Amino acid sequence: MSVGRTMLCTQEGPLNTISNNKDATQCAVAGRNVFKIFSIEDEEFVERMSLRVGKVNLNLSCTDVAWNPVEDHILASAATNGALVTWNLNKCSKSKQDHIFTDHKRTVNKVSFHPTEAHLLLSGSLDGTIMLFDLRKKEVSSVFRTGTDCVRDVSFSPHHYFTFMATHDNIVDLWDLRRTDKYERQFTAHNGPVFSCDWHPEDKRWIATGGRDKTIKVWDIQYRPYLEHTIQTIASIARIKWRPQRKYHIASCSQVVDFSINVWDVRRPFIPFAAFNEHKDVTTGIAWRHDPHIFLSVSKDSTLYQHVFRDAVRPADTVSPIGLALNIHGDVSHAISDKLESTETAKAGNYQSTKVPSFFRWSSLILNWTV
Question: In whole angstroms, what is the distance from residue 287 CA to residue 308 CA?
C-alpha cells in the first residue's frame, strides 16, 4: 500500500528541472537561481544542501539536472552558457563541484546518464550536437552531429546498451553509440518541434514523444516506426513521463496555458485519466518515485510538489455522459450512457459503455415553444 501525502516546498525562484536519486528518497531541483538537494520524508521535504556555493556564475544557471542511476553521489547539470557540470556529493569541501565541461558552444538542453554505466553521460545542445562524455577520463569520447540548429532532448535506452534517442526539429533519431557519423533510424514524429521523449520502462517496443503541435504520440519502434496512439491536448507539450507499473499511462505537462499535470490512458486519448492542479504556473519537470501512485514536480511558480493519486481530480467523473451532434443535412446524432440506468454507477462516473447512437431527422422533430 502506498504511503505519502500531497506536500509542497516553496523556493526562492522558478524551478526548471527535477531528478530523483536511484531509490527515490532524495531529489535534486534546479533553476536559474536555485540548485538544492532535498530528502523526501513522510510529512515534508527536508533540505540537505544547496549546491550554489562559492562564486556564483552562469554555470549554476541550470536548464536540466540528472542523478546518476548507478553511483548515488554523482549528479550532472546543464547550463544556459553551454557548460556541463558534474557534482560529487561525497566531497568533503563545501563546494561539491567535480568538473566543468565547456565543449558545447550554446545552451545545453538535456543531460542523460547511461542506465548501467556510471561514467557515461550524454548531452544535447542548442549547437545541434550530441556529446558523449567519459567521466573517468573527464573528456568527450564521441560527438554526434544532427545537422540541425537545436537538439531538444536526449535519452539512453533502458533496454538496449548501445542505443539512445534524440529529438530535433520535428524529428526523432535513434542512434548507436558505436557509430557517430549517422543515426541508425530517423522518422518525422510531429508537425513542429519535438520537445520531449521517453522510453517505455517495460515495453521495449514503445517510445513516447510530445511536441509543439499539442500532441503526445506513442510509437512502436521494433521495426519501422509505427504510430500506435495519439493524444490531443490543449497546449504545447513540455515534458512527458511514463507511469511505472502501468503500461498504458503517461504523465504530461505543458509549456503554456495549461498549468495542470495530466496522466493519460493512451487507450482513451480524449480526456485525462487523472489531473493534478496544484501548480499556479507552468510545470517544468516530472519525476515518479518508483511508485505508480506518487510523483514529484517542479514549476515556474517556485514550488516543489509531491502528488499522490488519491488527491487527483478525475475528469471522467464529471464529464457529461450524453452526446449530441447536428450535421449539415439536418441529421441529429444522440448518444447516452447505459450506465445512467444505475444511479450508483452514474455517481461513480464509469461511462465506458454507451448505447448505440440514435439518428433522426431534425425536420421531423415537433418543437413546442412557450412564451
Answer: 12
Average pLDDT over residues 301-327: 89
| The predicted structure's pLDDT at residue 202 | 95
Nearest to 207 by CA among 188, 226, 184: 226
- Assess contact for 99 and 87: CB atoms under 8 A: no
Grid cell locating 219: 510509437
Query: Tell me: the pLDDT tens digits for 164-174?
Result: 999 999 999 99
Question: How is residue 252 written as a grid cell?
Answer: 504530461
Please state the rounded mean pLDDT for residues 72-101: 95
DSSP string, 255-272: SSS---EEEEETTSTTS-
Grid cell in block for residue 226: 509505427
Contact 249, 265 (CB under 8 A): yes
Q: pTM for the complete prediction?
A: 0.86
Between 42 and 343, the more confident residue is: 42
Quote the radius of gyration of the chain (alpha carbons, Å): 23
Q: What is the pLDDT of residue 305?
A: 97
Backbone dihedral angles phi then psi of residue 347, each to the nearest 5 degrees: -65, -35
156: Cα separation from own chain's centroid = 15
Q: In whole angstroms, what is the distance from residue 305 CA to residue 124 CA?
A: 27
Residue among 200, 236, 201 at smallest CA distance from 219: 200
- DSSP codes, 40-88: E-SS-EEEEEES--SS--GGG-EEEEEE-SSSTTEEEEEETTS-EEEEE
Q: Residue 340 above 80 pLDDT? A: no
CB 174 within 8 Å of CB 165: yes
